[in-house]
Structure formats: C-alpha cells, structure tokens
Specification:
There is one protein chain. The chain is an alpha/beta fold. The protein has a domain of about 210 residues: Rossmann fold. About 40% of the residues lie in helices and about 15% in strands. The chain contains eleven helices and 13 strands. The strands form four sheets. It has a seven-stranded parallel beta sheet, sandwiched between helices. Strands 7-10 form a two-stranded parallel ribbon. The longest helix has 18 residues. The chain is globular, with a radius of gyration of 19 Å. The termini are far apart. Homodimer. It is an enzyme of class 5 (isomerase). Keywords: Carbohydrate metabolism, Galactose metabolism, Isomerase, NAD. Its EC number is 5.1.3.2.
C-alpha cells in the first residue's frame, strides 16, 4: 500500500482527504500539531475506516521533526500539504503568524522531501490567489492580482515557491485552488470543528441554529451582486477530498504533462451568502436570527470557478449539491450538540 504523507491531516479538509485516500487504497500518514484541529477527528476517521491511521504530533514547520517522520515511515511516495492557517479575517489581524506558519511549513517540507526521494506533491491552494477578478467565472489562466488578505498572499507566495522549486528539479506538483468547502462526511463522524468562534459561514450558521450563537451576521449587503451579499462557489468537502485522490494518482502514475499543474476545484456555480442562509433554513427547518452587518476587511465581493479544466484533464467533477452539503453540515452539528 503506497504511503502518502498528509500534513494537517486532522483538520477539516485533511481528515476527509485521509478517509478518501485510505478508501482508494493508499496508506495516509497524518502529520498535525493540533493547533487548529481537534484530536476527536482521529476517532472519527477511525470510526469510518474501522482502523487507525498513523499520526505524528509535530509542527510541520519543524524541519528536524519532519525528517524523523520520513525516516520512521520508509516508502512515502507523495505528500498532500494542507497544514496552514486559513482564516481570511484572522490573517488581517495576525499577518506575521500567517506568513510564518504558512511559508515555514512549506519550506521545511520542500527541504526534507528530496532527502527521502519523494517527488510528488499536491498543494492546498486557494481561489484567494485571484484577488478581486476582473471577470467571472475565473479560469486557471485568470491573472492573479494583489491578494486582499495576508492569507491570500501566503498562497500566492507558496505557488511561486513551488513553481521555482519544481523548475529547479524539485517535486512535481499539482496546485489545487479550492473555492469554499462546506458540509461534513455523510457518516457525521467527521466535519468542520472550528476552535472558538467560527471564521467560516456554514459552521456559524449551524451553531446559530443549534443555539450556540445568538445570531448570524452577514457581512456586507451592498455589494454589486444579485442580493447585495458576497457570492462564493461552495463545494461539498467530500467532493473536494476526492479531488486530492485524483491528483495524487495523476502524479504517481506520471500522467502530469508539466512539472506544475494548476486546477480550480469548485462547482462552477456561485451562491450568495443570503442564498446559503435561505437554503439552510429550507433543508433544516430552522429559522435563523440574521443580522445584516457592514463589509468585512479582506472579503472579495464575488468569485466562482470555471471548473472545465478539472473535468476535462483530471476527470474530476463535483457531485454534491448545496442542499446536500448543508444537510450534512446540520447532521454533523446535531451530533456535536451544544
């Protein structure tokens, strides 16, 4: 069974990717320092798979510690790199922490991988690299513009680093530019587990419905969008996880035609924040206490993917609908309780 190192493998997207990798016949190896995840995710992964997954509790930015993992797990053939801080709003408040964590972890990984002959890397990138696009939907050829947040800037810098390193003979890399992952595994054993107050829309919605939060604030209702609220491309997290399996397979089977390939991973549809709220109310039967608030620094008014390249080149297409993803998120919240 081919071993795949998954950094940030106990996190929201990472835990779902670990499940999908294992079910596709790979042996995932988790590296996570649990600074932005919870250990309960490990029990959830085990509950779905019926077996444990190796876990190393280290900070991915610690090059020496990372080296011990590769040494302890001979035969690692690829890496999926999730480990990063990821909240746009928080990055505006704590830019240094984002630059340090997100770039140092990548640099450490790139320093250690060649020592152990690991030549394949799938990188967790983001649609934030496009900044505020001039036209929608965005394709992989859409020019990247100045990022609207330090988080987005770290993803742009990471992509530049990976491109330069690959050109110099470093690992072959697939950059997956995510749009907005939502929902939870259908088993309700793993899902989004924000520490403290959620930074993402859907967990804030479900926590409001569950009575944990008094109200949901919609930031900005005067954007140039159909209903004035921000528009995003919301992708079911299980679909997103499956995209990583396809990318890993493409690299290991040497199907990639360039040293660095870029794919948008989204549905190709845009939904507004208020539309997501309405859809959640419909599928859950819960009425939310919604407050309309001012715009939030760092937010892009509207962005959604042209997902054609992922479908034609990767052979990947999303399956879960917005309603299905929100239903799974509510089921997950109900298993968590208050």
């Amino acid at each position: 069974m081919k071993k795949i190192l998954v950094t940030g493998g106990a996190g929201y997207i990472g835990s779902h990717a670990v499940v999908e990798l294992r079910q596709a016949g790979y042996q995932p190896i988790i590296v996570d320092d649990f600074s932005n995840s919870q250990e309960s995710a490990l029990a959830g992964i085990e509950g779905i798979l019926g077996s444990k997954v190796p876990v190393y509790r280290i900070n991915c930015a610690d090059e020496a510690a990372l080296r011990t993992v590769f040494a302890a797990e001979p035969g690692i053939v690829g890496v999926v790199h999730f480990a990063a801080f990821k909240a746009v709003g928080e990055s505006v408040q704590k830019p240094l922490a984002y630059y340090r964590n997100n770039l140092d972890s990548l640099l450490a990984l790139l320093a250690v991988m060649p020592e152990f002959g690991v030549e394949s890397l799938v990188f967790s990138s983001s649609c934030t690299v496009y900044g505020v696009p001039d036209a929608l939907p965005v394709t992989e050829a859409t020019p990247t513009k100045k990022a609207t947040s330090p988080y987005g800037a770290t993803k742009q810098m990471a992509e530049d680093i990976l491109t330069d390193v690959a050109a110099a003979g470093g690992p072959r890399t697939i950059l997956l530019r995510y749009f907005n992952p939502i929902g939870a595994h259908p088993s309700a054993k793993i899902g989004e587990l924000p520490l403290g107050v959620p930074n993402n829309l859907v967990p804030f919605i479900t926590q409001t419905a569950a009575g944990i939060r008094e109200k949901l604030t919609v930031y900005g209702t005067d954007y140039d969008t159909p209903d004035g609220s921000c528009v995003r491309d919301y992708i079911y997290v299980v679909d997103l996880a499956k995209a990583h399996v396809v990318a890993v397979r493409r690299l290991l089977e040497k199907q990639a035609t360039e040293r660095v390939e870029i794919f948008n991973v989204g549905t190709g549809r845009g939904n507004s924040v208020l539309e997501v709220v309405r859809t959640f109310e419909e599928v859950s039967g819960q009425k939310l206490n919604v407050e309309l608030g001012p715009r939030r620094t760092g937010d892009v008014p509207a962005i959604y993917a042209d997902a054609t390249k992922a479908e034609t080149v990767l052979g990947f297409k999303t399956e879960g609908s917005l309603a299905e993803a929100l239903t799974s998120a509510w089921k997950w919240q109900q298993t968590l309780g208050k």
